[in-house]
Amino acid sequence: MKQFLLIFQLLCFINLYAQHFQTPTQKVNTIKFANVSGYVSIEGTTNKEISIDYYSDDAQSKTLPGNTGVGLELQKLDSAWVFTGLLSETSKGRYAIKVPEKTVLNYQSDADHTRHVVIAKCKGDIDINIPKDVTLTEVSGGVVIQSTSGKVTVNSIAISKHKPVSIITETGPISLAIPANTNAELKLGTATGTVHAAYNNEKGKTLMNGKQLNTKLGTGGPQIHIQSLSGDIHFVQY
Amino acid sequence: MNCEEAMQAFLNARETGAALNKAEAQHIEKCEVCRREIAEIVHLFAEISNDEVLPPPPSIRQVFETALANEIAISQKTIAPRRGIFRSRFTTMAAACVLLIVGIGIGHLVTRTRDNRPYPEAFNGNKPDSIASTLYQSSSDRIETINRSVENNTPDDSLLVTLTRILANDKNSNVRMAALYALAKYADSPYVHECLIASLARETEPVIQVLLINLLMEKKGDGAIDAIQNFIKNEGIRKEVKMVAQTKLRSL
After folding, report:
1. CB contact under 8 A, A229 and B148
2. Given an 8 Å threshold on Cβ–Cβ distance, is B206 in contact with A170?
3. Shortest distance, CA B3 to any CA of chain A (angstroms)
4. What's the number of domains chain A is made of?
5. Structure pTM?
6. Residues of A with Cβ-Cβ distance to B147 under 8 angstroms
7. Is A2 a member of any domain?
8. Integer Cα distance of A100 and A48 in angstroms
């Protein structure tokens, strides 16, 4: 009972405004997001539509700019759609976005627009270039990430044949976890950080700490390239 | 006068019709890398002016031919009983004509779809060559194509030229890194070695600078140490990169 009262009190104090946008995405194979502000989560679904919810405690968010009504301008280009953020860098709202799972995602943000992007359950290629944090979970396409100072975390990734995994950071740490039976060519390196790796090779489970790790996992194949200038790299096969 | 300045001067001269100055002309005359690149550019311009129609890339041709073969196999299965019923060559010929038209249509559609896609940044607006034309759209696609292109370990000159161009020009650092890893397999080639040295001078991504330094120091080819010594004099480079370079040089 106390918990319900507490939640009720919280709801009374916090005015959480939400805006919604939804549209079918027939024949769209690439969705690009540029300079979306705040915290962003993108989830792949089996539906052939894109839906965007924007949550904020800011009263001004009742009327958001852009042709989507959620602070994003949508531009349709043949088979690619581009959503461009129109909110200021100081916006602390949260976007919850759902996209068709096989769509190719391209996510770009300069300066401090996006504070953290989380992408989950997507099967298309993912191409991200932002200065802040990136988290990927349960993805299975090609993954290309560049982040200057953010932390990059990739969990539960299914490495596809020929699909690359390429991650670069300058100062941010990188964590990558892949299944134990993955076949891949692994190249990890950091100039002034440390590579911590727990992986399987012909000798069995192997632990390694150092600056570089170039090795073949299983029979080799897909390329995994992870490099950081000063960030640590954590790699584990689970 | 370095290679980049000489190439810029050559391109300006070509565009404006002005003559090269003595230093530029001398550099181009002596530098094999520049001469190769100029020959490439001249050849490229000649091709562009001669023929505006791009042939479909090999991968598309392969996809098309596979699809066509499947269509033929399926149609043979379905047409064969009809021949038994009608015993007419006209039906077979009509089916073949329809198949041909559909095949050409599919091929045209597939080729046109790819041609409409933006060319990779690696080529700065130039028309791509056969390998480059398969590098389109997403960074992941471009990296995938680079990785596949060196799988058979028998590169020809055009592949190495394309990879060095990508390393020099692609706007995406991950794609440049993939090109560098691909080129690393052929770092003993004098042409690749020269290109790696040239790339060190123009590369802006610190992570790739470190990879270039590591590779050049590993191979220790002509001019590598001088190039790295010159590189670390540059005040714009990150201290971590400078530290790696100095450590490598000290370990000699």
Report:
1. no
2. yes
3. 28
4. 1
5. 0.71
6. 162, 164, 223
7. no
8. 5
Enter the ipTM: 0.89
Q: How do the pLDDT tens digits run along chain A, 238 residues long?
A: 555 555 545 444 445 678 899 999 888 989 999 999 999 999 999 999 999 999 988 755 567 899 999 999 999 987 899 999 999 888 889 999 999 999 999 999 987 888 999 999 999 999 999 999 999 999 999 999 999 999 999 998 888 888 999 999 999 999 999 999 899 999 999 999 999 999 998 888 899 999 999 999 999 889 999 999 999 999 999 8
Interchain CB distance below 8 Å, B181 and A166: no
**Contact residues, chain A, for B171 at CB < 8 Å:** none
Domain range summary for chain B, segments of one domain joined by +:
1-52, 58-116, 122-250
Contact A229 B210 (CB under 8 A): yes
- Residue A135 inside a domain? The answer is yes
Name which of A225, A226, A228, A232 to mutate to probe chain B: the one with the most chain B Cβ atoms within 10 A of its Cβ. A225
Own/partner contacts of A57-63, CB < 8 Å, gap of 24 or more, are: A57/A14, A57/A15, A57/A16, A57/A17, A58/A17, A58/A91, A58/A92, A58/A93, A59/A15, A59/A17, A61/A17, A61/A19, A61/A93, A62/A17, A62/A19
Name chain A contacts of B240, Cβ cutoff 8 Å: 191-192, 229-230
CA angle B60/B63/B67 to nearest 5° reads 135
User: Domain range spanning residue A45?
Assistant: 19-237
